[in-house]
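User: Is it possible to get a 3D structure for a protein together with its bound compound? The compound here is uridine-5'-diphosphate. I've pasted both below.
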Amino acid sequence: MEQTFIMIKPDGVQRGLVGEIIGRFEKKGFSLKGLKLLTVDQAFAEKHYADLSAKPFFNGLVEYIISGPVVAMVWEGKNVVTTGRKIIGATNPAESAPGTIRGDFAIDIGRNVIHGSDAVESAKKEIALWFPEGVANWSSSLHPWIYE
Ligand code: UDP
Ligand code: MG
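Assistant: Yes, that's possible. Here is the predicted structure of the complex:
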């Protein structure tokens, strides 16, 4: 089953959005496979966002991500990478539809509350980076009520 890496950024933690965000993924029917609150250092944040290192906003982005604790999660389910991105909404909250996490809870692109992997391959890389200890191995007894 497909997995994605979801991270509630420091602003989402500070603003008390952890429960709300977890609830949206849970209620959709996805399964929580990994969860931890941690503060990452600069080198780690630079590694996570390595693909964006040439961008003008890179340094500000790294400062933002290391500014406080984040909630790192692995969610599992059918098409969870693509659907997770839809639940999150467009990168710039000014363009995120209402009903999405960023559309409902964010205003500025540099304070957009949440990260989600953009492809199955990057999800695998990000899960390996953030959860080197591995994730939980369980399956929900609700599976037949969620999948046909
Ligand atoms: N970002 C920013 N300014 C920009 C573009 C992106 O501050 O012009 C930040 C924003 O927090 C975004 C993150 O960099 O979530 C990673 O950018 P990406 O293009 O990967 O967007 P995402 O995948 O998070 O939607
Ligand atoms: Mg991205």
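The beta strands are 3-8, 31-38, 70-76, 114-116. Residues 118 surround magnesium ion (ligand 2) (CB under 6 Å).
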